[in-house]
Specification:
Elements: H1 18-32, H2 47-61, E1 84-89, E2 100-107, E3 114-116, E4 130-132, E5 137-140, E6 154-156, E7 161-164, E8 177-179, E9 184-185, E10 201-203, E11 225-227, E12 250-252, E13 274-276, E14 298-300, E15 322-324, E16 331-333, E17 346-348, E18 353-355, E19 370-372, E20 394-396, E21 403-404, E22 418-420, E23 424-430, E24 441-443, E25 447-452, E26 462-463, H3 467-507, E27 513-518, E28 521-526, H4 533-539, E29 548-551, E30 555-561, E31 567-573, H5 576-579, H6 582-594, E32 603-608, E33 613-618, H7 625-630, H8 632-635, H9 640-659, E34 665-666, E35 675-677, E36 683-685, E37 692-693, E38 699-700, H10 714-719, E39 721-722, H11 724-740, H12 749-752, H13 761-764, H14 775-791, H15 802-810, H16 827-833
Parallel strand pairs: 2-4, 3-5, 4-6, 5-7, 6-8, 7-9, 8-10, 10-11, 11-12, 12-13, 13-14, 14-15, 15-17, 16-18, 17-19, 19-20, 20-22, 21-23, 22-24, 23-25, 25-26
Antiparallel strand pairs: 1-2, 27-28, 28-32, 29-30, 30-31, 31-33, 32-33, 34-37, 35-36, 38-39
Helix pairs in contact: 3-6, 9-11, 9-14, 9-15, 11-14
The structure holds 2-acetamido-2-deoxy-beta-D-glucopyranose (12 copies).
One 2-acetamido-2-deoxy-beta-D-glucopyranose binds near residues 327 and 351.
Amino acid sequence: MQYVCLGASPTLDLHNMSLLLGLGQQLLLLLLALPRLNCASNSTQSTLDRQADALLRWRSSLHDGSYYLDSWRKGTSPCNWTGVTCSNARPSGRDQGDVSLVVSNISLALNGLQGRLDRLHFADLPYLVYLDLSYNFLSGQIPSSIGALAELAFLDMSDNDLDGSIPPSIGLPHLTHLNLAWNALSSKIPSSLGALTELSFLDLSSNRIFGHIPPSICNLTKLTSLDLSYNFFSKGSMPSTLGALEKLKNLKLIHNNLTGPIPSSIGNLTSLVFLDLSNNWIKGSIPRSMGNLTCLEFMDLSNNQLKGSIPRTFSKLISLTTLSLQSNQLNGLLPPELGSLVFLSHLNLSSNHFIGSIPPQIGQCILLSSLRISNNLLTGQIPYILGYLTNLYELDLSRNNLTGAIPVTLSQLYGLSRLNLSYNHLGGKVLYTSIPPSLTNISLDHNMDLCGDSQYSMYGLTPCIAPELHSEQQIVKRSHFKLLPAFLGISFICLILACIAVVCQRRELVENTIENKSGDMLCIWNFDGQIAFEDIVGATENFNEKYCIGVGGYGSVFKVELEGGVIFAVKLLHSMEEYGDEGTFHAEIEVLTKIRHRSIVKLYGFCSHSQCKFLVYDLIERGSLESILHEQELVEEVDWPKRIAIVTDIAQALSYLHHDCEDPIVHRDIKSSNILLDLDYKAYISDFGMARKLKHGYSSWSTIFAGTCGYIAPELSSTMVLTEKCDVYSFGVVALEVVIGKHPGELLLPFFCRTEQPGKLQDILDRRITAPSTVEEEKAVILVALVAFACLQVNPKARPTMQQVYQALSIRSYPALMLRPLHEIRLQDLHDYCGSIKSI
Ligand SMILES: *[C@@H]1O[C@H](CO)[C@@H](O)[C@H](O)[C@H]1NC(C)=O
Ligand SMILES: *[C@@H]1O[C@H](CO)[C@@H](O)[C@H](O)[C@H]1NC(C)=O
Ligand SMILES: *[C@@H]1O[C@H](CO)[C@@H](O)[C@H](O)[C@H]1NC(C)=O
Ligand SMILES: *[C@@H]1O[C@H](CO)[C@@H](O)[C@H](O)[C@H]1NC(C)=O
Ligand SMILES: *[C@@H]1O[C@H](CO)[C@@H](O)[C@H](O)[C@H]1NC(C)=O
Ligand SMILES: *[C@@H]1O[C@H](CO)[C@@H](O)[C@H](O)[C@H]1NC(C)=O
Ligand SMILES: *[C@@H]1O[C@H](CO)[C@@H](O)[C@H](O)[C@H]1NC(C)=O
Ligand SMILES: *[C@@H]1O[C@H](CO)[C@@H](O)[C@H](O)[C@H]1NC(C)=O
Ligand SMILES: *[C@@H]1O[C@H](CO)[C@@H](O)[C@H](O)[C@H]1NC(C)=O
Ligand SMILES: *[C@@H]1O[C@H](CO)[C@@H](O)[C@H](O)[C@H]1NC(C)=O
Ligand SMILES: *[C@@H]1O[C@H](CO)[C@@H](O)[C@H](O)[C@H]1NC(C)=O
Ligand SMILES: *[C@@H]1O[C@H](CO)[C@@H](O)[C@H](O)[C@H]1NC(C)=O
């Protein structure tokens, strides 16, 4: 090959200056290329001109209206044309010597080009590195002369009207990106594709490709994205060595005729984030090894022929936000481990053969917005806990064998816009108050025992015949039935309370306790005023809704103003029948009567009666941190100094619980809705319903509904062992929430998976308040963020103790490495240096 030794700068107009250039060439030849006299033997036409000619010939073959290519004119340099860029190329095969200006990039996406691709003479464009012709109307075949593009790294011809086969010559060794999607290509995948060892992106979706997926595709070990969806791979299966593609993040094989099982080597694809194998004929069971895909955020295996049960290893898929397994032949019980999928927002298990009841652990996935388990063989009651999934937008449990009443908790789902409970065996009366007021799309039909007020007739409910009689009969029936358990329950509570009373007396922890026992009622007061059960009931008009100031996990909170102006918050517990765990009541009383701390909400007493049970606290006026962070008007008041103080208060209280009590106490449910703020924005920890004392430093975790998703330490779901470090993690979530102004949500995922942290701290700070204004404030914000990152480490042992955290925050000790202006701090720095918190 001959090359012209051309040193022209891209701004020169070559045509107008050809004479001059001719001279320049001679000069350059003499000066630079003396030893290689054959260099310019074809001086009649430069490489660039040849490329320009090839492009102009193609342009003239295109249909009129390629208006964007107006700059493509003979006599001008192609380097100046729309969509064309040149670079200095060194002839291949030589590592030094002559360079010349050549057309290297063509980028003509979305230019309305109409015409034939095969009129483009690739042999004249051998220096192309980058070719993007996507989103045009090019037709014809991909010419096999594409093999001449030996340097090509990027090829995108997606969304055109190309047909014919994929030429084997496409096996270009430097290709890293190949996209031929959305054409009408019909051939097998050429085996030469296996030679593209540099390829990281391959998209051949939405064509008519047939045959099977060649095993040689597993040679492409640098692939990060593979999409072969919407083709006609007739009845082949996935290559068993798929697991070799260890860098793969994105795998889509939607809507092909794939058969055979999912290869168990899929568990090796540990970088996978997005997996869609839906709409095939895939058989066999879901491999257990899929539990290794801990970075997976999206999984769709729907519309296949999968059998067997959901592997319990799915509990490790903690990054999942969408899980779609509908329309398969899956069976067995729904694994309680689904409750570990704390980021899940879409769960679709419809149209399978699942049996057993809906595990209440699903209530832990608080980000769920769509839950569909219709058309299965589920039995048992609808767990009341579903009523705490406040993000729920649609709930479809139709076509099962569910029994019992519709839980009243569902009435709290203000965001619910679709509820389908039709075709079950539900019973009871649908009250106006058991359906969220906003809900209009309701199906309750085909439930034999369900009846409703007249306003529900349009939902297919029969009116309740002789309502008085009917409901009375039910109550009578029920009370007979429930008498024994209720009696046992009450005796048990009495026993607990008696024990506590004894313990308290002996340890003299509760000094002013007044015990008032009469009939089936017991009240214990730790308050030097006079309160009676009747006073509370009277002041709230028998717990009328208008005094309700909040609904928590275990009960509703009422504001109570007694005569004389004393104000309390009273938490009325849900009936024992509903939350089924006396331990909760027990735990809260036991913990709160023993601890005294300025940042822990004070318990004044409790009453237990066969009809109701409540706890009486100090009223913390401003309500929860969560509600304040959600209110645009309120949040502006909470500036950076207040936020730093809030985080420090929480740290101090937790440090006290973990380190200053006889046995460490783990709160287990630290979250922003359990942090209350008073009028001075001082923070208090509340809601000790799940708190546990740790004996010998740990406790095994067995309660069904423990912790709140989005705040639970990841190890809890896998090890089931509770330590103080679980609170440390939850504290980290709250601290980060205070810094960024909302639940960190997906921001937590990088801690589990990605090592590279893109972005800067400054970019995630809550923008609703003015940026930190002094150096001291900046430093404190950085410190809080650093502490949060330290607490969110996956390894519990790596997290600091609350004592270390409180110490770091209270003495404002800044690791030297972080002493830089706020705008220079990258999230990666916080990640890298968070270990320094432990050594303060
Ligand atoms: C490119 O176009 C600009 C004006 O649009 C002109 O000044 C310049 O000389 C041209 N360069 C070449 C190499 O044609
Ligand atoms: C010079 O290049 C032109 C155009 O590519 C070609 O037709 C001609 O044969 C070449 N001449 C020599 C001597 O290589
Ligand atoms: C040409 O393509 C290469 C490879 O993708 C890219 O790195 C380079 O930035 C592109 N050059 C221009 C000027 O677009
Ligand atoms: C590609 O894969 C095939 C079959 O999987 C194998 O026989 C072949 O050696 C591989 N080629 C390269 C270049 O690795
Ligand atoms: C895919 O499988 C279905 C069902 O077996 C069949 O009807 C269809 O023709 C197949 N398509 C191709 C392209 O093989
Ligand atoms: C999967 O990984 C294991 C262990 O890293 C390795 O032994 C095995 O060969 C891998 N399988 C495939 C198909 O790459
Ligand atoms: C993948 O999962 C299997 C089965 O659950 C397990 O035996 C194996 O150790 C896991 N491999 C890795 C690399 O985690
Ligand atoms: C869930 O599955 C059903 C039944 O296959 C389907 O109609 C629905 O679109 C799916 N919903 C979601 C949110 O994926
Ligand atoms: C579901 O209910 C139907 C009708 O009452 C009954 O025939 C069927 O056996 C029940 N299935 C299960 C799994 O309970
Ligand atoms: C509710 O579910 C039933 C049975 O799955 C279905 O026939 C009906 O169309 C659904 N209703 C709505 C409003 O989606
Ligand atoms: C109820 O929801 C179903 C499924 O999303 C939808 O097809 C239907 O149109 C909705 N009905 C109303 C009245 O909004
Ligand atoms: C004890 O309870 C009874 C009945 O509720 C009430 O009349 C009395 O005042 C209470 N005594 C104290 C000391 O609270």
